[in-house]
Amino acid sequence: AEALLERYPSIYRGMVLEHSLNPPDTDLFDPAIQFALNYFAAVRGDKSVSAVLAPLGTKSRKNVFIARRLVHHGVTAYLQSRFSDSEQFYDDAEAALNGAGSVFDDLWIKLKRADTRLRSARADAVGRQLDIGSAARLVDEVISKSRSLKFSWLLGQALASKSVMSMTTSNLDEIQPLLKEAVEILTAVDA
Question: What is the model's pTM?
Fold first, then answer.
């Protein structure tokens, strides 16, 4: 099994992260997925994978699964331009995580919420500035904490999100280095 993971790391890493962040409607965790997550946590220097896996070995596992499914529903609502529904799913996910102590999941929700707020920014100038400012603060927090915690995959995701937030940068020359760093980080972790 390790030979396959070594031979096709980006494919398997993507599959196990997707499965872990959008778990099926069950409280059981597939041992093959757990094996692959443990492999990627040990082999690569990215602590994102360990952080995705860590709360699944606690008494909060059920709530973490619920929260991750809610975040997935929030992303789906966002993609369908149902922004208030998306925000509600993220609120519900935060409530489900209450007391779980999963830093990764807290940051993941903040990143997804930032994406929603940026795209759903209100039409009036004052409201739009509030939404854009809120999105920028959220994504900056995710970048800062992911960098300090060595959550490389999550950092790459956050940098990619920030790179498309041109209205949050004072200079368009800031975008290219963000995107370049995101691509380098995600390539380094086989994402």
Answer: 0.89
